[in-house]
What does this fold into?
Amino acid sequence: MNLRRKFKKTFSRNNDLYEQAVDLYLNENKPDEALRILLKLSKARFSKAFGEIGVIIYREKHDVEKAVEWFVKAEKAGALLEEATYEYGMLHYLDKDDWETALIYLFKAADQGYELAYGDIGNILYLYKSDINESEKWFEKAEKEKCLLATAAFSYAQLLMLERDDWEKSEKLFKQSAEEGFPPAYAEYASILYLNKIDVDKAELYFKKAEENNFLTAPHAYNYGELLIKERNEVEKGNKYLDMAKADGYYEE
It folds into this structure.
């Protein structure tokens, strides 16, 4: 067998193992088995495995520095694929507090067609660059592809409420964000439920969740206090929240 045919056969076998590892991770929820195969492939210098190793180590082990090593190896080998590019960007954003570098990699992932990057790009552009028009475009792209996750949905809701005066859509997005478990959205959703007379019991539940997660800000504390007084006849407890809101500079005539 000549060298070229031998290389093709080896590459094909390694590629099959790579696909098996990806399937184990994504479809069978077996990250340890997937990682074992990928590490074996990395020893054979199968560069496609490098970024996937970084993804698993970052997501499942949360070993940031070790994940960085593998992402860098993948990038140097020209094998940082779209999912790994996205995760490397999010690592910079969430663990390195470096939104500028994060944005570079998220744009690269988006250019490669990785749709999960869209909402995070919108989030960073809105929160750190105050680029309303551009962030809205990315939020809309994420929404169109049905990949607007809780964090981005919350920022998009804020943008629509504060910049576009679109309360109807912002309320839907606050609801989505809260129901997907994003703590900053709890009090917003609770106030919507209470003030719009949708569901007092559910409103109280989300006010409690907001307080438990330290996200009960002054306007929402006021609404919670009113709910307790008017709907539960718990005047003493309600006044405690009204006083809390006033102490933070919020009160209504």
Observations:
- Residues 184-253 form one domain.
- The longest helix spans residues 3-26.
- The chain has three domains: 22-111, 115-182, 184-253.
- Residues 90 and 96 are 9 Å apart (CA to CA).
